[in-house]
Automatic annotation (TrEMBL), chain A:
GO terms for cellular component: mitochondrion. This is Acyl carrier protein. HAMAP family: Acyl_carrier (MF_01217). It comes from Cucumis melo. Gene3D superfamilies: ACP-like. InterPro entries: ACP (IPR003231), ACP-like_sf (IPR036736), PP-bd_ACP (IPR009081), Ppantetheine_attach_site (IPR006162). Residues 48-123 form the Carrier domain. Its main location: mitochondrion. The keyword Signal does not apply. Belongs to the acyl carrier protein (ACP) family. The lineage of its organism: Eukaryota, Viridiplantae, Streptophyta, Embryophyta, Tracheophyta. Carrier of the growing fatty acid chain in fatty acid biosynthesis.
Automatic annotation (TrEMBL), chain B:
GO terms for cellular component: mitochondrial inner membrane. GO terms for biological process: mitochondrial electron transport, NADH to ubiquinone. It is a peripheral membrane protein. Residues 19-72 form the Complex 1 LYR protein domain. It holds the Pfam family Complex1_LYR. Mammalian complex I is composed of 45 different subunits. The keyword Chaperone does not apply. It comes from the Eukaryota. Its main location: mitochondrion. This is NADH dehydrogenase [ubiquinone] 1 beta subcomplex subunit 9. Keywords: Acetylation, Electron transport, Membrane, Mitochondrion, Mitochondrion inner membrane, Phosphoprotein, Respiratory chain, Transport. InterPro entries: Complex1_LYR_dom, Complex1_LYR_NDUFB9_LYRM3, NDUFB9.
Length: 126, 116
């Protein structure tokens, strides 16, 4: 007991130093790293990040061949999807970017380019 | 005459396709509202998709109209009373809450002594 108390009395953990060092190691939110602030809307996305995340969502759709996906594919003409699959992809994009797209506008999104443009220009996308 | 009837047919067909797409979109969202967990949603979503796929090859325009009306009626009947709304959207939990003050504005907490 006495030994433990003696050791504890002499032990000093530089807490602040550790915290600062760890913060420096973390990637910045904008660089597409693992840190994403799920409740905030201040993390402005770069175009590259938008493209990367849109493509990853499209590749995750079960009917899509991931090797065919590129930033300028048309969902129905190039990927061989039908209109209901397109609806599913747009809904997945809404969930990925925390958006709520009005029905009429979501209906217009039928290609990867349009999806990227829409998400990138949306003020609330994150 | 035949050209105008063809154009009319195509226009009606396009309108029907749009209605189906929007109905599917709303129904899919509603399925997500009803599902308590993701793994339940996947099952319900594929069931919903099968209900749409069952009438995929119907050609008669009036039959299609009737089917769409049935679908919309059943969507209306089973609509969720408290759907999920994205937080920032009107009706969402974050709507008009705690707007961030613009840069350069700072709040001075001077409780009750503002006029001194």
């Amino acid at each position: 007991m006495a030994l433990r108390a003696a050791v504890l009395r002499h032990l000093r953990v530089p807490v602040q130093f550790h915290a600062l060092a760890r913060r420096e190691c973390q990637p910045t939110p904008c660089s597409g790293g693992s840190l994403r602030l799920f409740s905030s809307h201040d993390d402005h996305m770069t175009k590259d990040e938008v493209i990367e995340r849109v493509l990853s969502v499209i590749k995750c759709h079960p009917k899509v061949d991931p090797s065919k996906v590129s930033p300028d594919v048309h969902f129905e003409k190039d990927l061989g999807l039908d209109s209901l699959d397109t609806v599913e992809i747009v809904m997945a994009l809404e969930e990925e970017f925390k958006l709520e797209i009005p029905d009429k506008e979501a209906d217009k999104i039928d290609s990867c380019n349009l999806a990227i443009e829409y998400v990138y220009n949306h003020p609330m996308a994150s | 005459m035949s050209f105008s009837s063809t154009a009319g047919y195509l226009a009606r067909r396009a309108a029907q396709k749009e209605r189906v797409r929007i109905l599917y979109r709303r129904a899919l969202k509603d399925t997500l509202n009803w599902a308590v967990h993701r793994h339940l949603f996947y099952k319900d979503a594929s069931d919903l998709r099968e209900r749409f796929e069952a009438n995929r090859h119907v050609e008669n325009l009036d039959t299609i109209d009737k089917l769409i009306e049935n679908g919309e009626a059943s969507y209306d009947k089973w609509r969720h009373p408290d759907p999920y709304i994205v937080p920032w959207a009107p009706g969402g939990s974050k709507f008009t809450r705690n707007p961030i003050p613009p840069a350069g504005i700072e709040i001075i907490y001077d409780y009750g002594r503002e006029d001194h």
